[in-house]
Design brief:
single chain; 441 residues; alpha/beta; 2-enoyl-CoA Hydratase, Chain A, domain 1; OB fold (Dihydrolipoamide Acetyltransferase, E2P); 3 domains; six-stranded parallel β-sheet; 15 helices; 50% helix
């Protein structure tokens, strides 16, 4: 009897413990990610993956901290599509103070469920430009601007944001501070927050309209945050897409392949140069590159090589260095400071590559001018000594090149006389007396 009562009490205790555990609500989880740089395919892949992780974990909110000068339209659309399809509400936070979300970043901000900015930030300037930096005609420019403006208006209308100002940001490259964005009627953003914790505090209990029209109330009080970082491969590819890294890879790749062409079989310069060039081409697809700059760099390298082979009294060398400098400064065609390659990098790289190319070219020319030391060419004009008398029509022996050879001569040669090799047929030398004054063996 006592055993059954004890079992009943133990079972009741377990039921009460389970009920008490079920009654305690789990603290909400907020997933966060940071994009600090150009919007390109790697950034799009990173954001998509982070949103998928937030959806899988049932997060209460996904916060994307955005700091960007802009990027590719296709990658921007990929990110916005991921935001629109997300099960988790998505907040885009432009911050901290002093940063901006320009061009592509502006479109991503407009597409978010919640758009927030930190004090001292700005958004806008979303006018499209050619991705390769080339000049485009007025008709094509209008088509591009009209297409992006239509896309931006669609996002703004669905998100109940100021459609007119969004269109002006695209067609007139307007920018807006956080106060201008929140003060517009209707506003461009939803709120101003100093940082992510402040944003979460202000969003708690807020009713948010999703892109499909559903309403959802956010519960972010006491939420724990889970940061989603880039994978190692994403970090590497994102770093390569930096203008200065892309420039270094282009120069090193060109230098490596040039060395391989000069000395076939070296292998290492060719392999390293090929890898650098492939990585550079990947980065240059993301960046607004001027093909004129690339051609000037290649032309400058060609001039430096010709300087060693052609007598130009330094003109080709000066032209090559000038071409490298101009090409390096023109390589990235963008007014944004984040995309510029500074002279602090251009000058040492240009003069360093120029010095290496000139030095290697001199070594090649010097090697070509050095007399051969093997084969028939290596024996011609060698000096030796007759070991026997050599008469026309009769062979004798001579010592030359550290070896004893059978030799013939058109003139009589006395034993012990110094001779000079004038020909080689098979293993028989043709020699003549070398009776120059002062000559020594």
């Amino acid at each position: 009897m006592r055993a059954s009562i004890s079992s009943l009490l133990a079972g009741a205790a377990l039921v009460l413990w389970a009920l008490s555990g079920a009654a305690q609500p789990q603290s909400p989880v907020v997933y966060t990610a940071v994009v600090d740089g150009i919007i390109h395919p790697v950034a799009a892949e990173y954001v998509r993956g982070a949103i998928e992780k937030a959806d899988a974990a049932g997060a209460a909110l996904f916060v994307l901290t955005l700091r960007t000068p802009g990027g590719l339209v296709d990658s921007t659309r990929d990110i916005n599509n991921a935001i629109i399809r997300a099960k988790t509400p998505v907040a885009v936070f432009v911050g901290p103070a002093g940063n901006r979300a320009a061009s592509a970043g502006f479109l991503i901000t407009i597409a978010a469920d919640i758009a927030a900015m930190a004090p001292g930030t700005h958004i806008g300037a979303a006018h499209p430009v050619a991705g390769n930096g080339e000049k485009i005609d007025d008709t094509m420019a209008k088509k591009m601007a009209s297409d992006v403006a239509g896309y931006a208006r669609t996002l703004a209308a669905q998100r109940k944001r100021n459609v007119a100002l969004v269109e002006q940001a695209v067609t007139e490259s307007r920018t807006f501070t956080e106060q201008e964005a929140i003060g517009a009627a209707p506003p461009l953003i939803d709120l101003i927050a100093s940082d992510v914790p402040d944003l979460l505090a202000k969003l708690d209990g807020r009713n948010v309209a999703r892109f499909d029209g559903r309403r959802e109330t956010l519960h972010t009080a006491g939420a724990s945050t889970h940061a989603v970082d880039m994978t190692f491969s994403q970090k590497v590819l994102s770093a390569i897409a930096h203008p200065q890294i892309a420039y270094l890879l282009l120069m090193l790749g060109t230098l490596g392949l040039t060395i391989e062409l000069w000395s076939p079989g070296a292998v290492l310069p060719g392999v390293a140069g090929g890898i650098c060039l492939l990585l550079a081409f990947f980065a240059l697809q993301v960046l607004p590159v001027s093909y004129t700059g690339v051609l000037l760099i290649l032309f400058g390298i060609a001039l430096l090589i010709l300087e060693v082979k052609v007598t130009s009294y330094g003109l080709l060398g000066v032209g090559g260095i000038a071409s490298l400098l101009l090409g390096s400064m023109m390589l990235i065609d963008s007014p944004l400071p984040e995309l510029q390659i500074g002279l602090r990098l251009i000058l040492p790289v240009t003069f360093g590559v120029s010095a290496i190319l000139v030095f290697l070219a001199q070594l090649v020319v010097r090697a070509q001018r050095t007399p051969a030391v093997t084969g028939t060419a290596g024996m011609l004009d060698e000096v030796g000594q007759a070991l026997t008398d050599i008469n026309p029509g009769r062979a004798g022996r001579v010592q030359t090149h550290g070896e004893i050879w059978t030799a013939t001569a058109e003139q009589p040669v006395r034993q012990g006389e110094q001779v000079r090799v004038t020909g080689l047929r098979g293993l028989v030398l043709t020699v003549r007396p070398d009776r120059q004054e002062g000559a020594r063996l």
